Amino acid sequence: MTTFDDREKAFENKFAHDAELKFKIEARRDSLLGLWAAERLGLTKDKAEDYARSVITADLEQPGDQDVLEKLSKDLSGLVDQSAIKDKMAEFLEQATAEIAGLER
Length: 105
What we know:
Layout: H1 3-41, H2 45-59, H3 66-75, H4 82-104
Helix pairs in contact: 1-2, 1-4, 2-3
């Protein structure tokens, strides 16, 4: 292998690692969001965990966060406004990043 091949492989590995890390962080954020929303909806613990999984699944439907925002806005209509949901998304993204980054060390 040449130095160029080694560098290329290293960049590919870093890209794959970064993509996996991003996925884990977003999945954790979605789980936290789902549990937060479930509490507002008055769901039991088992139902809350199912709901959190549904939020994670919703995030896989299309690129970006819009699908999660739409689901939560629809489900929490009349209980929580969209700006509060966006604030929680940002808060939980920071929390998830700290949690997942702590596991990576």
